[in-house]
Specification:
Blueprint: E1 9-15, E2 20-23, E3 29-42, E4 48-60, H1 61-70, E5 76-89, E6 95-108, H2 112-116, H3 120-129, H4 133-141, E7 145-148
Helix pairs in contact: 3-4
Length: 156
């Protein structure tokens, strides 16, 4: 029997900051943003408790460009991808570790109006301005939005 492994992360949360879009020297888009997930529970004594976890999210290629265009701080999203750990030595000589989620799927769960305060007509005008009139018409009737991308990760 073949060895089977799974590295899959699925999160629903709110962006803690606007996405930061960059490009590799080879011209491949990469975006990063923060995502907060909350957990609530009641203790045995009846006390309400809440815990927040903060995650670093990274997307590549077309998905990165779409995330930078569609997402803003506070927006509620579903992301799916894999967990990746990094280790490096800082400028101060101290070894550091970090974990990030490399996503290959993203679904926006809230409305644009709720997260950005923009009206839908201005969003449609922007889409039409970019020459995508049909997508703008479909966008008016589509919810939630889903974006998929291949796992393309050239090294920096």
């Amino acid at each position: 029997m073949a060895n089977r492994c799974l590295n899959k992360v699925m999160l629903i949360g709110n962006l803690t900051r606007d996405p930061e879009l960059r490009y590799t020297p080879g011209g491949v888009a990469v975006v990063s943003f923060g995502l907060a997930t909350n957990r609530r529970w009641t203790t045995q004594t009846g006390e309400q408790r809440e815990d927040a976890q903060f995650h670093r999210i990274v997307a590549w290629s077309k998905l990165a460009e779409l995330c930078s265009q569609l997402l803003v701080k506070g927006r509620k999203v579903y992301v799916e991808g894999r967990l990746q750990h990094k280790e490096w030595t800082g400028n101060d000589g101290v070894k550091r570790k970090d974990a990030e989620i490399i996503i290959n799927d993203m679904i926006i769960l809230d409305s644009r109006q709720a997260s950005q305060g923009d009206n839908l007509e201005s969003e449609l005008e922007k889409a039409v301005a970019f020459g995508d009139e049909q997508e703008a018409k479909d966008e008016k009737n589509q919810k939630p939005e889903e974006v998929k991308d291949q796992e393309e990760q050239p090294p920096f």
